[in-house]
C-alpha cells in the first residue's frame, strides 16, 4: 500500500488531497481539503506576493504538513502555479515555505499545468477530440486535444483574481470597465491562431466553471447534485453572466449556488468564459472537477504499472471495477458469473429488446455493482445499492447513465415501479429510458436467479423464439431445477408486459 499527498497551490485557492493505492491496484481518496487564500491578490504591477498572502499560504501548508504525518504519506507532490511562477519574490516565498513547513514546492510552467489538467480530464471524461481550459486565479490554460493527445496549448494571464484587480471590479462596476475588460480578453484570445472554427466539445476546469454550473443547476432545479461531466448550454452562461453583472459584489453572495468566497471574483471569471465561448462554435460547456491534482495522481499511478492490471476496453469499466473492489471484495466470482450470464442474455435477446450497445454497457456496470448495498446491510440492500451508485465517484458515464445504472442495479431485486416514479430523478428520464431500465433490470434479475445454480455455465444457456413465445433453454443439474422454477415463476409476467410475449423456461440435465 502507498499513500500519496498532492498539494495544488493556486492563485486563488490551495487544494490538498491524500490518496491510497493498494497492492491489488485499487485506489481511493482518503482525505481532501481546500482553502481560499488569494495568493495572487495584491501583487500589483511589480508582481510581489504580499506578506498577508504569504502568511495565509504558509499557515495552511503547516496544517497540511501535519496531516501528511498523521496519514503516514509515502510520497508528496507539491505544485505551485501562475501566482508563484510570476512572482518577483518567488525565491523568498519558496525558501520560506520549505523552512517553515518542510514542504518543497515545485513551480510548474503553463505548458506543464495545461498537460496535468488534460491528464485529469482524459482519465475521467470519455472524450477523444475537444478543447479544454483551466481557469484559475492568475491565468487560463487552453488546450486543443485530438485523438486524446494535446496538439496545442497556451497559458494566458486571464485569471479571476488578477483581472478583478486589474480592472477594479470588487466594488463599483461600470459598463465602461466591463467593455474594457472584454476588449482585453478578446485581444488575448485573438492571439491564439489554432482555435478551431468548427464546432468542438468544450470542457472547463476551475472554480469559476464549477460556480457557473452550480448556479445553473439551482436555476433549473436540477435534481442530481453532481458537477463532474455536467453539461450546460452556452446560452445559459450568457444568462448567468447577466445575473452576476446585475448585482453588486456584496449582493452576489446571495445568488443560489454561488459561494461567498468566490462572489467578488466570479464576474471577471464569467466574462473570460463568455468571451471564449463567443469566439468558438461550441454550443455547450462540460464541467470537469478533475484537473491538475487528478492528472498528477494518474501519471504517478501509471508509473507503477498498475494500469496493466486493468481492463483496457473502457474507462467506465475500469472505474466500476476499482470502486467495487475497494468497497466489497467478496463474491467477486459470483458477480463475474452474473455479469457473463446477463451479457449473454442481452446479446441473445437483442432482436427482441432492440437496445443499444450503451445499454449493454450499463447492464455490465449494474451487474458488477448490483449487490454493493450488502456492504451497508442485508435488509433493504437494494436501496443502499442505489444510494451508493448515485453517490459514487465513478468516471466515464453521463449523469443520466449513472442514474439509470443505479435503478437497474436496485430495481432488479426489490425496487418497485412506484419508487422510480416517486424519485426526483424521474424528471431527467423519458419513457423510453424508463422502459430501458425495466428491460435491463429484468435481465439482471433472471441472471441472478440462474446464478443460484452454482454449476451453471453461460455455454449451457440458449434461446429460441416463436411468434408468441421466447424459450429459454438452461442446462443444469437435476437437483437445481426447483430453484429455477421457484424464483422465476414470480417474474415471468414482467417479460410479457415488456414484450407482449411469454417467456418459457425449459431445462435439460447436463449430466446425461
Automatic annotation (TrEMBL):
First and last residue of the signal peptide: none
Keywords: Hydrolase
The enzyme's E.C. designation: 3.6.1.11
Ppx/GppA phosphatase N-terminal domain sequence ranges: 18-301
Keyword Amino-acid biosynthesis: no
Gene Ontology terms for molecular function: exopolyphosphatase activity
SUPFAM superfamilies in UniProt: Actin-like ATPase domain, HD-domain/PDEase-like
Occurrences of domain Ppx/GppA phosphatase C-terminal (ranges): 331-468
Listed Gene3D superfamilies: 3.30.420.40, Exopolyphosphatase. Domain 2, Hypothetical protein af1432
Highest rank taxon of the organism: Bacteria
Coiled coil: none
Principal EC category: hydrolase
Reaction catalysed by this enzyme: [phosphate](n) + H2O = [phosphate](n-1) + phosphate + H(+)
One BP term from GO: regulation of transcription by RNA polymerase II
Transmembrane segments: none
UniProt key word Secreted: no
Family of the protein in this entry: Belongs to the GppA/Ppx family.
Protein name, entry field: Exopolyphosphatase
Organism field: Dialister micraerophilus DSM 19965
Amino acid at each position: 500500500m502507498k499513500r500519496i499527498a498532492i498539494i495544488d497551490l493556486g492563485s486563488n485557492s490551495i487544494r490538498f488531497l491524500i490518496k491510497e493505492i493498494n497492492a491489488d491496484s485499487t485506489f481511493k481518496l482518503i482525505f481532501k481539503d481546500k482553502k481560499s487564500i488569494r495568493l495572487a491578490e495584491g501583487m500589483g504591477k511589480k508582481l510581489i506576493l504580499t506578506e498577508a498572502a504569504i502568511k495565509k499560504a504558509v499557515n495552511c501548508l503547516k496544517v497540511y504538513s501535519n496531516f501528511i504525518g498523521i496519514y503516514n504519506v509515502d510520497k508528496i507532490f507539491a505544485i505551485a502555479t501562475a501566482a508563484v511562477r510570476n512572482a518577483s519574490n518567488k525565491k523568498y516565498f519558496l525558501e520560506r515555505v520549505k523552512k517553515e513547513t518542510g514542504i518543497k514546492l515545485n513551480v510548474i510552467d503553463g505548458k506543464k499545468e495545461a498537460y496535468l489538467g488534460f491528464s485529469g480530464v482524459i482519465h475521467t471524461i470519455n472524450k477523444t477530440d475537444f478543447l479544454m481550459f483551466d481557469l484559475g486565479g492568475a491565468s487560463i490554460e487552453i488546450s486543443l486535444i485530438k485523438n486524446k493527445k494535446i496538439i496545442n496549448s497556451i497559458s494566458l494571464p486571464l485569471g479571476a483574481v488578477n483581472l478583478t484587480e486589474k480592472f477594479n471590479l470588487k466594488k463599483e462596476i461600470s459598463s465602461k470597465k466591463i467593455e474594457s475588460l472584454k476588449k482585453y480578453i478578446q485581444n488575448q484570445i485573438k492571439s491564439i491562431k489554432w482555435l478551431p472554427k468548427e464546432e468542438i466539445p468544450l470542457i472547463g476546469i476551475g472554480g469559476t466553471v464549477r460556480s457557473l454550473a452550480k448556479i445553473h443547476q439551482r436555476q433549473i432545479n436540477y435534481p442530481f447534485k453532481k458537477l463532474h461531466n455536467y453539461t450546460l448550454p452556452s446560452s445559459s452562461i450568457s444568462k448567468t453572466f447577466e445575473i452576476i453583472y446585475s448585482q453588486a459584489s456584496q449582493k452576489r453572495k446571495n445568488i443560489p449556488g454561488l459561494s461567498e468566497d468566490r462572489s467578488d471574483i466570479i464576474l471577471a471569471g464569467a466574462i473570460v468564459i463568455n468571451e471564449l465561448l463567443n469566439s468558438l462554435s461550441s454550443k455547450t460547456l462540460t464541467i470537469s472537477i478533475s484537473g491538475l491534482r487528478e492528472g498528477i495522481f494518474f501519471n504517478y499511478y501509471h508509473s507503477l504499472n498498475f494500469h496493466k492490471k486493468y481492463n483496457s476496453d473502457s474507462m467506465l469499466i475500469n472505474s466500476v471495477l476499482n470502486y467495487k473492489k475497494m468497497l466489497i471484495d467478496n463474491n467477486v466470482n459470483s458477480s463475474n458469473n452474473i455479469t457473463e450470464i446477463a451479457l449473454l442474455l442481452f446479446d441473445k435477446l437483442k432482436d427482441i429488446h432492440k437496445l443499444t450497445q450503451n445499454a449493454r454497457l450499463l447492464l455490465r456496470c449494474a451487474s458488477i455493482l448490483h449487490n454493493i448495498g450488502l456492504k451497508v446491510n442485508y435488509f433493504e440492500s437494494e436501496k443502499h445499492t442505489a444510494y451508493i451508485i448515485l453517490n459514487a465517484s465513478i468516471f466515464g458515464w453521463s449523469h443520466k447513465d449513472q442514474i439509470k445504472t443505479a435503478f437497474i442495479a436496485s430495481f432488479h431485486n426489490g425496487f418497485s415501479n412506484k419508487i422510480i416514479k416517486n424519485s426526483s430523478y424521474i424528471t431527467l428520464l423519458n419513457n423510453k429510458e424508463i422502459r430501458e431500465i425495466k428491460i435491463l433490470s429484468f435481465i439482471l434479475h433472471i441472471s441472478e436467479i440462474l446464478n443460484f445454480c452454482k454449476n451453471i455455465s453461460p455455454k449451457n444457456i440458449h434461446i429460441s423464439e416463436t411468434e408468441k413465445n421466447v424459450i429459454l433453454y438452461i442446462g443444469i443439474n437435476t437437483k437445481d431445477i426447483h430453484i429455477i422454477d421457484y424464483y422465476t415463476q414470480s417474474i415471468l409476467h414482467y417479460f410479457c408486459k415488456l414484450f407482449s410475449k411469454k417467456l418459457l423456461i425449459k431445462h435439460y440435465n447436463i449430466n446425461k
